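non-specific serine/threonine protein kinase
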Amino acid sequence: MWILSKRRIIPGGDTDKIELDTLSCNSYSGVHPQTDKDASLVMLFPNKTNEVKDLTIFELLKATDNFNQENIIGCGGFGLVYKAILADGTKLAVKKLSGDFGLMEREFKAEVEALSTAQHENLVSLQGYCVHEGFRLLIYSYMENGSLDYWLHEKENGPSQLDWQTRLKIARGASNGLAYMHQICEPHIVHRDIKSSNILLDDKFEAHVADFGLSRLILPYHTHVTTELVGTLGYIPPEYGQAWVATLRGDVYSFGVVMLELLTGKRPVDMSRPKTSRELVSWVQRLRSEGKQDEVFDPLLKGKGSDEEMLQVLDVACLCINQNPFKRPTIQEVVEWLKGVGTINRNQNKDP
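Tokens:
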């Protein structure tokens, strides 16, 4: 059974743009400050750069207007995300979790605290959490510009505001965040749901990978093998349908799809398009095999002096979406290749 999630993170909380899927949204009700327990401190992690030193449930309720629907800025398989504005003007993003918790409360706290050690400039910072009377909240840094998905596919004139250098910066930043998860932080983290709506953008359009580790918190797990895999149509590696094993190289495949989105401006799956071009991966691979790779690029990007760089990134993306997981690069190799884009000749790069 696949758990498919559709999630939008939208600047300013434009609820008209949010698609609320039933998995996330049916179980929500307001939380009312009725007891003295509501004044208890939310657990905030040390060594954070944010100015929030202490926080109570009551303050969090006030900051979200008691989790008012008007403050929803995102929705997905893991829960709703609310914009919170504290009394001093500080903005936070608060995720109210839903789903089947395979962990007891003490284990949940331990897992969250472990995730809090994953600190990198290209990850969305987990500021704290609260387990209170049956509901669980995760508190994150607020990302001013919402998600990459929003800018590429939802916002009017959004794609035209993402020039090639901005898109390349986003790809590089997201790859750095993913490389940190895969190779540096302990324990290593398999994201399992890399997609454009899980790449959030700050006010300078720096990329931050979001929702990492949440599948460990919510779904039953045994090492890296599970009978239920989180994923989103169009990003799911082909091997997941055969072995149901979430791996680092599965994340690399999904990131390759995100790079194709940046290059083409198209969604991974679009049923409104002709049958031969509905699935982005197969469409790009077909055109590339026919020697028509120039036709895959977003018309907004073509002919502006960056075609050679886009071809280099296309090469990297196509390595990532190889049907054979063992022929995909590691994310660290992707980081190095993206870093070299524009500084080396395309023929020097590894040939997919």
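The chain is about 35% helix and 15% strand.
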